[in-house]
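U., I forgot to send this yesterday:
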Amino acid sequence: MAGRAQPSGPAGSGGGAPGLLPLLLLLLSAAAIIPRGDGQNLVTEDVTVVEGEVATISCRVKNSDDSVIQLLNPNRQTIYFRDFRPLKDSRFQLVNFSNSELRVSLTNVSISDEGRYFCQLYTDPPQEIYTTITVLVPPRNLVIDIQKETAVEGEEIELNCTAMASRPATTIRWFKGNKELTGKSEVEQWSDMYTVTSQLLLKVGREDDGVPVICLVDHPAVKDLQTQRYLEVMYKPQVRVSQNYPLQGLTREGEPLELTCTAFGKPQPTDMRWLRVDDEMPQHVVVSGSNLLISNLNKTDNGTYRCEASNAVGKSHADYMLFVYDTTATTEPAVHGFTQLPNSAEELDYGDLSDSRAGEEGAIRSVDHAVVGGVVAVVVFAMLCLLIILGRYFARHKGTYFTHEAKGADDAADADTAIINAEGGQNNSEEKKEYFI
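Result:
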């Protein structure tokens, strides 16, 4: 007992110091267990999804050290804590969970699901970032409304295309066949939705009949959304006259002539008739429907024969210019052939004058030959006149010259006497004069 030393009061107080060491070591070890997040990075991406489809949210950690990952909704309610789902919404499903990622899917997305979702990482200090879900709503209906179901050529019609209840607002494009047209759009907003109406003014012609007009939507939520309407355009007849006989060659005296008139329009022409321009129709001409027949041509048949056709829209015509040749004729004058004059400036655009143009080209060639022949005849005539004038001029200036030296020589018996008797002789040589007779 004597060998065991009792600690003194100061010693006892000093002996209490070793009891604080375990507590300090415990605090240091606890601080070492709590992750500080040194070198860890929390990343995510925004999500854009079409209404009714699936959105996937991913919270990822770079350089993870097993820190806890949590996902919260826009109301700061916990959707997933690690792989546990406290929120009772079965549309949220765990896709992947690991030390470095928490991936969650949201099915049947609606507008109410749009907003910010938070990814949290329990470090010291905690990390938090957010991802934004954007919901796209495609147009619920696409309709074309035409002001007039049936239009008449030359009219301007109005078409309207409406794309209803979309988000964001749609862009509407117009096409007529393969050609893009320009319309005028108006946007109306109802709550979070947009309704767009585009107006197109279109002047129609006969070539537009049966052509589709297409309304096409440009929207990030949908591809190739379009609707179309086919144009129905009424137009007056297109008329053509064709020669059935003779197929080729000249229309000579005594031979037959047969012409056929064809007409196309919308509606189909119901009235078609033949007449002779600026004269009465010859009595021997036979008209049967769209056909005209002259069995025995003669010179009195010369003239312009017209076929007229009409429908509910208007009237059109085509002409045939007849020239009857002698039986020995081999060339065709300019007046023979088909002609068709347009009833309006619009008809100049249509290709129904092929026969007419062929006749006109032949007429132009014949006129050119006639002009060349006339010029040559005028030149030859001018040359002949010039030769006659020159001939007469030279004939008038042709004559005999007499001098005073020979005066009196006619009565001399010989040459010597003639010289001696010549008036003036050698002495009057300075007074010699010549006269032209």
